[in-house]
Amino acid sequence: MALISFSLLSSTFAFGKSKNEVSTWCCYYGQQDKTEDLARFDLAVLDAGGQKPEQLRKRRVKCLVYVSLGEVHTDSPYYAQAAKLGLLVRYNENWDSWVVDIRRPEWKKMLFEQIIPDALKSGYDGLFFDTLDSPIDMQRQDPDTYKGTERSCVELIKDIRNHYPKLFLCQNRGFEIIQRTAPYIDYLLIEGLSSSMDIATGIRSDVSDQDREFLITKAQSAIKKNRNLVVLSLDYALPDDKQEIDKAYKFSRKQGFVPYVSTPELHQVNTYAPAP
């Protein structure tokens, strides 16, 4: 009898590769054409208004497009409509955006009929979901007023999977619901596994051992629900801080994750990566 073995923190089975398997990835929200730099990676997360995916896909780079599920930026083309419908519930001064009431059917209608189709227009392999933490935090702070928000987040991910069965889906954080959403996604992104950086000051700081353990435990719980799940990590450091970048890559790979290190704005492509 042939033995089938796999690691808890690996998405690669002994008998073959999963379709979502990658060994390198990057996140780039800049406007300049960085095709040559981005082509070095297996997976790229891009902004809908920035780098076009066509040439990258021809070079077999999996391209995911950014979609905000839990917030609307004030300069978004969907902001006025969301405000008119009364979907905006809390201002996020850090990003000049508004948290939406994700439970409302009007928001789901906007996502499925406008926001997601518009994001996919240029041709992508999948979707990158951001800002789920924001509505989840609303329920945590005021469980009576925002009861059912977590459940609505899970149902939304499930509905997107059912609507787009062939697309790759990546969830950024949302650890409160990850065990419930893991079966419907291909990638989980962990921000700040090793380091974070203050945007205003440019000062980098280490992530505490306690926070690291929390993140790793959550990733492990997700993989138990989806053995093919690929865990990505994103850390922040100055581009010339090779020592800290090396440490972040080494630690992430040790957990079985796929690392990338950049600056918080994600407006440049960091092609430096230490060899495994």
Automatic annotation (TrEMBL):
The keyword Transport does not apply. The keyword Transit peptide does not apply. Gene3D superfamilies: Aldolase class I. Residues 34-266 form the Glycoside-hydrolase family GH114 TIM-barrel domain. Keywords: Hydrolase. GO terms for molecular function: hydrolase activity. Pfam families: Glyco_hydro_114. InterPro entries: Aldolase_TIM (IPR013785), GH (IPR017853), GH114_TIM-barrel (IPR004352). It comes from the Bacteria. This is Glycoside-hydrolase family GH114. The lineage of its organism: Bacteria, Pseudomonadati, Thermodesulfobacteriota, Desulfovibrionia, Desulfovibrionales.
